[in-house]
Amino acid sequence: MKLQALALHNFRNYDDVTVAFGDGVNVLLGENAQGKTNLLEAIYFLALARNHRTSSDRDLINWQAETAQVKGRVQKASGNTPLELDLSKHGKRAKVNHLEQAKLSRYVGQLNVILFAPEDLSLVKGAPQIRRRFMDMEFGQMSQKYLYNLSQYRTILKQRNKYLKELGAKQQKDLVLLDVLSDQLANYGAQIMFQRITFLKQLETWAAQIHQEISQQRETLTFHYATSIADDALVDTAHIYEALKAGYAAKRDKELFQRTTLLGPHRDDLKFIVNDKDVASFGSQGQQRTTALSVKLAEIDLMHEQTGEYPVLLLDDVLSELDDMRQTHLLTAIQDKVQTFLTTTSLSGVAQKLIHQPKIFTINNGQISSESDDGDEDASADAADDETNGI
Q1: Is 247 annotated as belonging to a binding site?
Q2: pLDDT at 168
Q3: Which of 277, 308, 339 is at the close of a domain?
Q4: What confidence tier does 380 reach under pLDDT thresholds 50, 70, 90?
Q5: Radius of gyration over alpha carbons of the chain, in Å?
Q6: I need a labelling partner for 121 at 20 to 30 A (CA). Which of 90, 184, 298, 352 fits?
Q7: Is 36 annotated as a binding residue?
Q8: Are 37 and 22 part of one and the same domain?
Q9: Do 283 and 320 share a domain, yes or no?
Q10: Is residue 372 located within the same domain as residue 294?
Q11: RecF/RecN/SMC N-terminal domain spans which residues (predicted)?
Q12: Which residues pair with 27 in a beta bridge?
């Protein structure tokens, strides 16, 4: 899978930009606050129809404009696919092959991306919601069923929490509707949890191998899906469903008192275990970074295994956070394997030696100029328009 071209209109600090990319490593070079991360953000948004930095889509629109647009052309084994997202104060519209999609779940998955930024190092030691979001974003790209179940679960969870608040304020409590909502929530919750467990087992296989390579066979990485459901109930959706139902019944009084749902995948966590110890609590900073890197690289292989296509890799200033050894492993692993977009203020040292024939883009105040790896300018605005014809 490759992103051949991208066109932006009023997106962040880009007024009107059209750019064609290389199939290998695309280096986005420039000083801070010039738009490098914004360009990666546009690619991420084109893929998932949501922003990784803010929950407000309005923040993506240039402050001087009322609407914004992101368009791209994706090359896959099955052919080229134009994608388009239109943003306004009324919401967003998604198009595939110029046809508007009624549901975003039918749009997501047309372009698969993996983002690795400095804040992703907190995947290991950060709050549980970071790891839940990681699972939802990555697994959602690989399975429309997962996205659908997640959407339904969130809708019912919101309804159930609202009803718990209403019940908590009443003397007489009608629990019939609560039982109905509990049953629905357990149904979708069980499917989400079983899908997570299935994907995590597959991801663990890839990550464990990569972690051993980086640690030179000194460390073993395993995953543990942490939930309040007993481990022996995690064998299939039916057993998880029954365990969730029993859990809601057992916690009913506590939930009515606290007026919120205390059980389910929205409360679960993912633990990374290195040499039989929770690396978040007992691991060194080096072990935590190796774990985060192993998981991100494993995602590449898992997405390929699940979809038949390698994803696009977005590296946002991550090289500056890795030592030479981990830089070397990262750049060696992706070389000639996945299309990569890498932001940096300076391409030097290890990176310069390891990246073969990069396509370099200099970004300055929302303007993009392209040059080949020998420094010759090779892309005018007209040439870019020719290459991006069709998006």
Answers
A1: no
A2: 74
A3: 308
A4: very low
A5: 23
A6: 352
A7: yes
A8: yes
A9: no
A10: no
A11: 3-352
A12: 342, 360
Is 251 annotated for ligand binding?
Answer: no
What is the token pair recorded at 299? 């995602």
Residues 102 and 250 in one domain: no
* Pair (207, 277) in one structural domain: yes
Do 23 and 166 fall into the same domain?
A: no
Instruction: Flag whether 31 is marked binding.
Output: yes
123 with 259, same domain: the answer is yes
Tell me if 306 is assigned to a ligand binding site: no
CATH number at residue 224: 1.20.1050.90
Which of 261, 286, 308 is the endpoint of a domain? 308
What does the pLDDT average to over 347-355?
73
- Least confident span in 119-133, 163-177, 342-356: 342-356
The pLDDT tens digits of the residues spanning 155-175 come to 999 999 999 999 877 767 788
CATH number where 76 lies:
3.40.50.300
**pLDDT for 127:** 93
pLDDT band at residue 381 using 50, 70 and 90 as cut-offs: very low
> What is the C-alpha to C-alpha distance for residues 319 and 368, in angstroms, rounded to an integer?
22
pLDDT tens digit string along 220-241?
999 999 999 998 999 999 999 9
Say which residue the tokens 């790896």 belong to.
Answer: 373
